[in-house]
Design brief:
Order of helices and strands: HHHHH
Strand content: under 5%
Distance between the termini: 32 Å
Radius of gyration: 15 Å
Helix content: 55-70%
Number of strands: 0
Largest sheet: none
Number of helices: 5
């Protein structure tokens, strides 16, 4: 049976478990390059915006909807949250994780012994 990539794109983000994502990013936050001198609490709204917007815009790439995601971030932003330009890398990282993109800074990335 052949996989329907259009169906895969439509279903992408369907099974988002906010509590799992929040726990993951709480644990991983300090390991992120953008997190220097910043607490998880300062980025919590950004991470939440990342996983909720991933579900809100199924099948889309982050770059395609970044303006809408930035607006979503600003609309719900608590007073203590950082400006969009500072948290953009965090939101993008959430999208990368949820879409299965493995970035060069992922510590869990496999390393090949030989080529």
């Amino acid at each position: 049976m052949q996989k329907d990539s259009k169906t895969d794109e439509t279903n992408r983000g369907q099974w988002v478990f906010p509590e799992n994502e929040a726990a993951y990013w709480r644990e991983q936050h300090s390991k992120q390059p953008y997190a220097k001198n910043s607490s998880y609490d300062q980025y919590e709204h950004a991470y939440r915006t990342g996983y909720t917007s991933f579900q809100k815009y199924p099948g889309k790439e982050f770059d395609e909807v970044e303006e809408s995601v930035a607006n979503d971030y600003e609309v719900g932003k608590p007073d203590s949250a950082l400006p969009w330009d500072m948290v953009r890398p965090a939101v993008s990282s959430v999208w990368d994780r949820m879409s299965g993109v493995v970035g060069p800074r992922d510590f869990d990335r496999g390393i090949r012994d030989s080529i």
